[in-house]
């Protein structure tokens, strides 16, 4: 393509990017409400970062709506996330403010009160939804330890109650008359809804904000049809509702609604949840990764432009038998460098699996960076990754068959290799998921998926993915086998003793440090979104880091492979896969560090769930990075041995 064509293509791509950034793609269309029109209020699960065990809202003694609770339809991604959405007893009408509306009065026995107290201790939060917008709870946190200016922060969901501590944590706001160590229930909710009007663009009003201020109030039991006497004190400092040491607690649940106009546009209404971190940290992550890439690129350039050019000139000038006997370095192993490795069938399976994970990751990140996978579309990211992995099975079958046939031209066992490709990685992940699901179900948590969800996953696996793997393998076996630029000797060459720094274990572990170093800063934000229930939205940064990761894996593997061949060690097949794939060990080690320093899980099942899911993530990362390194190294080795004269 000419320079002009490249410039035009770049300009068009930028215009498309900017147009996508300007028009928000949330997965749902904006809805306009007329005055006094009913607005649905839904409740989602109760969630906690301390237990990671979501529970259904109505598992506690909350008021139920008139006509009974009804569950909303959820997609597969929402079910896997643990969402369980129901209707609520709260009634909103567009533009209609309310003051101290009584929902119901419940008499809690000692068991129910203790259940509330336990979940308050475990810092459970209530999640609600209005117009597909999660409820936001305003807190204040110091932006820096030495910065007195406070930054306004919004969190999704609000606390179920409070146990005042001394000193108070950054997100704890105890009311007056609260005693340290006692349990108080938030039974009055002050809802604040923001709407936007634009008569020139549309008719009606759009909801652009949904916030709540929870308050604990000890009401006197109201008469039927009347409001409690304390309703007039909701804006003052009422006596809080304590749950400790009470056998039968009368709890009156109330709420108020306040509608406010806002200049915020509908396309920007998620900003309050997303603008929580400083972009400078992400830029630092990218600059840090770029320094690693530039360092490796310089080494690869030195090898290719200086060392290899000298090698090519020296090797191609060898004419006499005496000169040929004096060969040293990587050319000396030309008769063994393409010798099939041990367990080459398994290597072909891992390469196919890695290509499948790479395809899923690449398409997901491109779609997310373009705004097609918005957090407003609950479960969309999870569902997209699952479906993409299923449909990328054709790539897994094709590449596993290609490399199996390269090692075994007759290809008599291609069906077995294909079956292992279709079952091995998904089987390990599904087994871990099934075991954890049984443990979560034992906790009676809403995070456990039902039998029919498991059946749906099995149908996707065996009904779509496995046939696609066989289809890809069929076309891969139809292709002619990959030809090597040099012949392989019948008798393997003896490998000389290697220096300590060229030993397989040491070089493999060293090779994984730089790929992990390229992503570990961004990894912190990803783990926070997974385990601290934060929204991750920096997909553009993540895509750039992913590109840097690919370059880092390829370059570090090429460098170490070149040093290995120069030391006359031709067993590079598996080592090239494990060199960059060892970054998964550092990822898992970092997750252990993150668990003990950032999380406060107090249940054994919760800890087991964390390490189980992080194992599956690390295993997928191993297949991804290992395949990138292997393919880069394979292309490099083929290129250098095709460029020299070999008798």
Question: Strand fraction band?
Answer: 5-15%
Structural class: alpha+beta
- Main sheet specs: 6 strands, mixed
Percent of residues in helices comes to 40-55%
Pick out the low-confidence regions: 1-27, 141-151, 319-327
Strands in their spatial order, largest beta sheet: 5-15-13-14-8-9
On the 0 to 100 scale, the average pLDDT is: 83
Per-chain topology:
Blueprint: H1 3-22, E1 38-39, E2 41-47, H2 76-81, E3 86-87, E4 92-93, E5 98-108, H3 110-121, E6 125-130, E7 133-134, E8 136-142, E9 150-156, E10 158-159, E11 161-162, E12 184-185, E13 188-196, E14 206-215, E15 249-261, H4 271-274, H5 279-316, H6 321-325, H7 344-369, H8 380-391, H9 393-407, H10 414-442, H11 451-478, H12 504-511, H13 513-531, H14 539-566, H15 573-581, H16 583-598, H17 604-641
Parallel strand pairs: 8-14, 13-15
Antiparallel strand pairs: 1-4, 2-3, 2-6, 5-15, 6-7, 6-10, 8-9, 11-12, 13-14
Helix pairs in contact: 5-13, 5-14, 7-8, 7-9, 7-10, 7-14, 7-17, 8-11, 9-10, 9-11, 10-11, 10-17, 12-15, 13-14, 13-16, 14-15, 14-17, 15-17, 16-17
